[in-house]
Design goal:
With 360 residues, this protein is an alpha/beta fold. The chain has 2 domains: 3-79, GMP Synthetase, Chain A, domain 3; 87-331, Rossmann fold. It is 38% helix and 26% strand. It is built from 12 helices and 16 strands. Strands 6, 7, 10, 11, 12, 13, 14, 15 and 16 form a 9-stranded mixed sheet that branches. It has a 3-stranded mixed sheet with strand order 3-4-5, covered by helices on one side. Helix 8 (243-258) links the parallel strand 13 (234-239) and strand 14. It is globular, with a radius of gyration of 22 Å. The two termini are 29 Å apart. The structure holds adenosine-5'-diphosphate. Residues 104, 107-113, 140, 269-270, 304, 306-307, 310-311, 314 line the site of adenosine-5'-diphosphate.
């Protein structure tokens, strides 16, 4: 039995979460045939989706029907993350499957907080994740991730390369690593852009499913440099619900559109405060993120409440998704990361078929 035969056979099953032909999701991670024992590791968008057991039964029945000699079939599911097609063509960080800008129109809306918690929940979903902290105005990732270490330098093929700091399983490079503690640097545009480029070309990232960029707020040089240096998979725009923040988030969306970077979705942060009696106090107004996503026909990945522990955990250097995995907020984040993985897979598969059409 060859891998092609197995793919052919599995193509009859549909991923219930996406209703896509399973073959197109690059989803066969490994196939081991040992005598009459077959072991399959399959990558799914969401290995925990309630239909995986049905899928398993369907596959087993199909294999047994076509290959009656196989008596023992073991199927395991893990997170399947596809690669952005344009990414593969780029020679910068070729082993990074997807690059995502986490952006906001305004500062202080919780963009860095979202970046670290998203990174951790993507990792919990089985992805290999890195962060580039490109927020020249306030690189806060080292603080939020409790990083004291600095990247090591290694000589590879006669060139100095930087090894990212690994914290809680996430690879991190930050513009903050280039500053003395507590010191302020005024980053001029070209200087900041060249530091960002260095983070992409001179850092040993190795294999990653997602590299998240914590962008400076607004629509400046760094955004342009990034979109010109690298084909991004897309952007995630963080906003708070009030009009003053939405107006800037709109500008952020339009700027990405102008440079051909799709906004994959919005995240509304600080959506409400949960009062002791369980009612929600909409401090900054209600439904702003939803309004924005409807306006642009783009997904709203989630609404994150204002929770004291989110701030506390960040200040303590261990994001809430890691230090309190059972908290309601951690569940919201895991739902957001599931939706993001789905969206990325879907887009990657779609652009792959577009590519195929062009090839023909
Ligand atoms: P930005 O990156 O947009 O400038 P930060 O992520 O640095 O914003 O967040 C600003 C402050 O707000 C931080 O102190 C952070 O801990 C806090 N914060 C962010 N999101 C929340 C939230 N949902 N609940 C409580 N505090 C939050």
């Amino acid at each position: 039995m060859t891998e092609i035969e197995i793919k052919e056979l599995l193509s009859k099953a549909q991923d219930p979460d996406l209703s896509l032909d399973l073959r197109s999701l690059d989803f066969i991670k490994s196939v081991t045939l040992n005598g009459n024992r077959l072991k399959l590791d399959l990558g799914l968008n969401n290995p925990n989706n309630p239909h995986t057991e049905d899928l398993k039964r369907e596959i087993i029945a199909e294999v047994k029907k076509q290959y009656p000699d196989i008596s023992d079939i073991e199927i395991s599911f893990s997170q399947g993350i596809t690669s952005h097609v344009e990414r593969k063509k780029s020679n910068i960080m070729p082993q990074v499957k997807n690059t995502i800008a986490v952006a906001s129109g305004k500062g202080g809306v919780g963009k860095s907080t979202v970046t670290v918690n998203l990174a951790i929940s993507l990792m919990n979903a089985g992805a290999r994740v890195g962060i580039i902290d490109a927020d020249i105005y306030g690189p806060s990732i080292p603080l939020m991730m409790g990083i004291e270490a600095r990247p090591a330098v290694q000589v590879i093929n006669g060139k100095n390369k930087l090894i990212p700091v690994i914290q809680y399983g996430i690879k991190v490079m930050s513009i903050g690593f280039l500053m003395e503690k507590g010191q302020a640097i005024v980053w001029r545009g070209p200087m900041a852009s060249s530091a960002l480029k260095q983070f992409m070309s001179e850092v040993v990232w190795e294999e990653l499913d997602f590299l998240l960029f914590d962008m400076p707020p607004g629509t400046g040089d760094i955004q342009l440099t990034l979109s010109q240096t690298l084909p991004l998979t897309g952007a995630v725009v963080v906003t708070t619900p009030q009009e003053i923040s939405l107006a800037d988030a709109r500008k952020g969306y339009l700027m990405f559109e102008k440079v051909n970077v799709p906004t994959l979705g919005f995240i509304e942060n600080m959506s409400y405060f949960l009062l002791k009696d369980g009612t929600k106090e909409y401090i900054f107004g209600e439904g702003g993120g939803k309004k924005l996503s409807d306006e642009f026909n783009t997904e709203l990945f989630g609404e994150i409440p204002i929770v004291t522990d989110i701030r506390k955990c960040s200040d303590d250097g261990m994001p809430i998704t890691l230090s309190k995995p059972d908290a309601e907020v951690a569940k919201i984040y895991s739902e957001i990361s599931r939706k993001l993985i789905n969206k990325v897979n879907l887009r990657n598969v779609e652009s792959k078929s577009e590519e195929l059409t062009i090839d023909i």
